[in-house]
Structures are given as structure tokens and as C-alpha cells.
């Protein structure tokens, strides 16, 4: 049976970053169930840009999509009010971004396309079982890193369920020419259908409409909100693709799990995602860096917990920002005040 210093389950931004920076001097297996692109808005926030810049990394233009975005149109469906705010995002093809992150790993990192299905402790390490190419395989890992996202198998098998808020994110892709709206990024609030948010983003010839909804009635509420948006001015036609996945929204220190006893969790598997914007790529990269820096310490679990303290606080404090964004009364006050918003040309004047 093949043995590794570390098996990393999940090759998204967290797992790929960790494998890239920890794989220079360790024998690492990166296991990812390739072929199922992660539903995502694919917007690289300033925090994520900064996290990449720490490695003097630049992005190849092949992973960018049209148009590039520097403002968001906020739409409140409760009041039919709109405001524009400056936001510096890079608009990406998320699938290509993940593939690119996995293409810049050190040659010593072994990459396998397979789905992790079992984890058992044995002899001071772990037997990690995965299915690939129709058969089951087992490898031995001295340490295990769970970077397998919101629905982490590593987390659920080793630590049980996380005490956090869970939503189902649903995204539909439309041909942009059928929707005929300006290619603008919008963030949508509609308390009747969700206490989280929704969005539209243009990606080359497509328009994505997506949102995060309570799991119980997610599809019905998604369709209900889509109908309201049609009335608002988004003439959605037939979708070319529908995708869905779990998304977490931390609200207390118990919403995070860094791991323990030889198993480390990074990225969304650890619960690291912004509860206000659902932005998670920066936390994925930053937690991967924190773990890599902790592995050489005498007590790596303690060190990792300490090094992610500021990240956990930062994410929890975003719940305060959520009040102004998600509480209908405060949101209407903030939007009515126009504070930090961009005044559109001709706004407020009779045309
Ligand atoms: C609809 C939506 C839109 C979003 N938009 C944005 C955005 O625009 N910008 C932003 O910064 N964040 C966004 N996020 C959040 C962001 O996508 C995540 O926080 C981020 O991808 C987390 O990175 P990760 O590496 O921890 O996990 P993931 O990106 O989820 O990667 C996990 C990887 O593990 C693999 N995997 C899972 N289970 C197994 C298994 N059992 N065996 C092997 N491999 C496995 C998956 O294939 C995947 O490649 C969005 C989230 C959603 C749901």
C-alpha cells in the first residue's frame, strides 16, 4: 500500500494552495473528485487577490471572463430600490481557476482523480479509501487534510456535524442574449424568499442567476424569486444549466472546526466563509497558508488554531455587517442614506 506524509482530500482553492506550498518537501497525495465543477460566482475579491499576491502570483488571461467588474448594483426586492457600490472583483471562470491552481503544483505532489469514501485510523496514521475509475483504492497517510468544501466527508467522518447555518445555493445559466440586461453584477435581497442573498453575474456569453436559500423549500423559493425578478426586469428564458450545492454561513465560534488528532480542516470544510458575502476563496487560501506554517511547530494543531484566530474573528464580525445588509429595516435605511454609494449619471434629474 502506498504511503504518504499527507493526504489532502479536495483540490479546490484550499487544497490546491496547501499542496502547492507544503508539497516541496513532503510526500503529498492530492485527491479530488474532478469533473464536478463547483457552483460559484467566480468573483475574486480584493482579499483573495491579496492572498494570491503574497506568493507573487499573477493570473493567466485564459481564466478571466467578460466583463471585468468594479461595481455592484444592489437591488432590494422588498422596496424596489437600487444602489450602486464600488467593488473591485476579478471575474473568473471558476472551473478554469481551480484547474490552473492544480496545474502549478510542485512535481512531487501526486494528483489522483477519485472520491474519498472512507477514513480509518491505523498505526498512528490513516487508511484513506477512495473510488477511482470504478474501483476502490486505499492509501496510508501519516496526516490528513480535509479541504473538501462545505459538505466535507473528512469533517463528517472525523468530527461529526458542524453547528452552523446551512443553505442550498442554486445557480442557473442563461444565454445572455436571451436576457438582454446590461452586463452588470447585481446583488439581490428579497426577505420573502430568503434571509440570505442572490446575484446575477455575466460570464462571457452567459448570465448566471443564483441565490442561497433555506434547504427545506430551496427550489420553490428560487423559482418564486426568479418570477419576481422577471417582473423587476430580468426576462429570463430557458436555462442552459442548473447547478446546486451546500453553502455554510458561520454565526458563532462553534461554526468552525480546525480539526484535531492528526486531521486538519481548511477552507470551507473548516467553516471558513464570509456570512455576509459568501466569499470564501480568500479564507480557503489563507487557512491553507496558516496550516502550512503550523506543520513545523511542536504542536501543529494548537499553532493552526492560533494562526486562524484572526480569520475566525474577521468572519464572525461580518455578522455585524450582515445587520445593515440583511435586516430589511436597516438595509432600507442604509440604501436610502446613499452612504458610500455611487451616484449614477443623471440620477435625481428629470431627463
Ligand atoms: C453558489 C456559490 C457562489 C460562490 N461565489 C463565490 C465567489 O464569487 N467568490 C468567492 O470568493 N467565493 C464564492 N463562494 C464560496 C467559495 O466557492 C467557497 O468558499 C470556496 O470555493 C471554498 O474553497 P475550498 O477549497 O475550501 O472548497 P471547494 O472549492 O468547495 O473545493 C472542494 C473540493 O473538494 C472536492 N471534493 C469534495 N468532496 C470530495 C471527496 N469526497 N473526495 C474527493 N474530493 C472531494 C471537490 O471536487 C472540490 O474540488 C461561492 C459559493 C457558492 C456555493
Task: Give me some keywords for this one.
351 residues, 30% helix, nine-stranded mixed beta sheet, alpha/beta, D-Amino Acid Oxidase, Chain A, domain 2, 10 helices, 31% strand, globular
Based on DSSP secondary structure assignment, what is the total number of beta strands?
17
CATH fold-type name of the largest domain: FAD/NAD(P)-binding domain
> CATH superfamily of the largest domain, please?
FAD/NAD(P)-binding domain
Question: Biggest β-sheet: count, sense, barrel?
Answer: 9 strands, mixed
Radius of gyration: 21 Å
Oligomer: single chain
* Percent strand: 25-35%
- Bound small molecules, deduplicated: flavin-adenine dinucleotide
Shape: globular
CATH structural class of the largest domain: Alpha Beta
Low-confidence regions: none
Distance between the termini: 75 Å
Structural class: alpha/beta
Contiguous helical run count: 10
InterPro entries: FAD/NAD-bd_sf (IPR036188), Geranylgeranyl_reductase (IPR050407)
Protein name: Putative oxidoreductase
Organism: uncultured Anaerotruncus sp
Amino acid at each position: 500500500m502506498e504511503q504518504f506524509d499527507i493526504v489532502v482530500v479536495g483540490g479546490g482553492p484550499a487544497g490546491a494552495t496547501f499542496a502547492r506550498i507544503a508539497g516541496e518537501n513532503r510526500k503529498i497525495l492530492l485527491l479530488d473528485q474532478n469533473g464536478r465543477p463547483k457552483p460559484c460566482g467566480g468573483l475574486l475579491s480584493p482579499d483573495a487577490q491579496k492572498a494570491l499576491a503574497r506568493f507573487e502570483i499573477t493570473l493567466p488571461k485564459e481564466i478571466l471572463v467578460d466583463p471585468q467588474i468594479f461595481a455592484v448594483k444592489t437591488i432590494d426586492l422588498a422596496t424596489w430600490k437600487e444602489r450602486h457600490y464600488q467593488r473591485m472583483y476579478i471575474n473568473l471562470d471558476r472551473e478554469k481557476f481551480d484547474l490552473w491552481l492544480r496545474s502549478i503544483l510542485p512535481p512531487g505532489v501526486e494528483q489522483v482523480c477519485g472520491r474519498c469514501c472512507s477514513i480509518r485510523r491505523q498505526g498512528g496514521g490513516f487508511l484513506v479509501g477512495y473510488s477511482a475509475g470504478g474501483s476502490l483504492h486505499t492509501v496510508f497517510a501519516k496526516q490528513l487534510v480535509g479541504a473538501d468544501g462545505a459538505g466535507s466527508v473528512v469533517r463528517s467522518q472525523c468530527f461529526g456535524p458542524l453547528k452552523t447555518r446551512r443553505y442550498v445555493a442554486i445557480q442557473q445559466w442563461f444565454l445572455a442574449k436571451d436576457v438582454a440586461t446590461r452586463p452588470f453584477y447585481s446583488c439581490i435581497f428579497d426577505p420573502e424568499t430568503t434571509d440570505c442573498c442572490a446575484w446575477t453575474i455575466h460570464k462571457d456569453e452567459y448570465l448566471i442567476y443564483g441565490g442561497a436559500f433555506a434547504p427545506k423549500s430551496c427550489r420553490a423559493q428560487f423559482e418564486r424569486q426568479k418570477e419576481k425578478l422577471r417582473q423587476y426586469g430580468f426576462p429570463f428564458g430557458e436555462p442552459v444549466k442548473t447547478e446546486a450545492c451546500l453553502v455554510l454561513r458561520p454565526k458563532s465560534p462553534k461554526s468552525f472546526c480546525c480539526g484535531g488528532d492528526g486531521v486538519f480542516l481548511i477552507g470551507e470544510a473548516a467553516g471558513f466563509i464570509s456570512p455576509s458575502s459568501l466569499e470564501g476563496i480568500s479564507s480557503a487560501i489563507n487557512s491553507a497558508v496558516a496550516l502550512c506554517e503550523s506543520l513545523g511547530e511542536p504542536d501543529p494543531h494548537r499553532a493552526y488554531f492560533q494562526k486562524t484566530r484572526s480569520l475566525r474573528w474577521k468572519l464572525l464580525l461580518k455578522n455585524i455587517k450582515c445587520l445593515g445588509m440583511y435586516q430589511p429595516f436597516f438595509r432600507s435605511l442604509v440604501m436610502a442614506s446613499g452612504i458610500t454609494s455611487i451616484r449614477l449619471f443623471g440620477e435625481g434629474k428629470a431627463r
